[in-house]
Amino acid sequence: MSYRLSNFSLYITFYSLLILSITNPTFGDTPVSGNATIRQKAGPSEIVITTTNRLAGAIDSLTWNGKEFIDSFDHGRQLQSAASFDLQSTDPFWAERYNPTEAGSRSDGTGKSSSSKLLSLRATGNELETTTRMAYWLAPGQKSSGRLALNQKILSNHLVSKRVRIGYKDHDQVIEYQTTFTVPKGEQHTYAQFEALTGYMPAEFEKFWTFQPATGKLEPLSDGPGEQKLPVVMSTKDGKYAMGIFSPDQPSKGYRHAGYGRFRFKAAKVVKWNCAFRVRDQQGIKPGEYSFSMFVAVGTLEDVRQSLVSLTKEFPKK
After folding, report:
1. Distance between CA atoms of 64 and 44, rounded to whole angstroms?
2. Where is the composition biased (Low complexity) (predicted)?
3. CA 98: distance to chain centroid?
4. Which domains does the chain have, with CATH numbers?
5. What would the pLDDT profile of 206-243 be if each residue is shown by its tens digit?
6. pTM score of the predicted model
């Protein structure tokens, strides 16, 4: 796995520090509006991405050709990022126990505000940049599947920055997405799990596919649930709408059979894909920035397939 310290990462680091140390010395007491929209022509329509105050600047909506691709319900079901850590706990790892989440906490529910704190947002044309101080998914004392939260407060010191650009080179229906997590000093972890990006989609995106770079074909994929090493695509039954995920940074070192996940939650009537990275170090996870580059393909099933063919040719696995 490569951690790319791009010009964007340097810019975000400087800008975040500027905000934290000068404009907002108490980590963003001055409100920043999270309401923004970016858009660009993509095939017969536009891709339109919307962020909201309700989600502290996380992506609330993505539409194309009249179709909504995101099932934004509570503060977990978005196109967003999150991270999980072990806090050197002796218990078996459970992702939600120490889980900074971009859009907010479980307790935020379907409410109109977020426990996360938006520090900066810039949206112009087809580009979006944000930095957010993430809330823990669980509040102190709450449990996930019987497992008690490890955090002792609601708002974490973990930052996540994203840069989103609709269109990549001559690929109008590809969204370039870079996420940078900043792990704070003073925390002790031996394991980090970065959900660099996840997309919760309406249940009508019922068909799961895996993309085969060697052949350029899509093959049916089981419900799993779980991760695999090949890119994942979700589509409507008729193939008129689809979304796929690809990252040139996959796989994580030591996790070559994982990285792209798919999940179907029948009771909640929602499906999900994710792109996850992992770092394990028995000497301790180093504080600082962890950056990941990804591409989200949107359109018809054939549009998405063609986009993934081009991307995997541009970024062949070594």
Report:
1. 9
2. 104-119
3. 17
4. 7-314 (2.70.98)
5. 999 999 999 999 999 999 999 999 999 999 999 999 99
6. 0.90
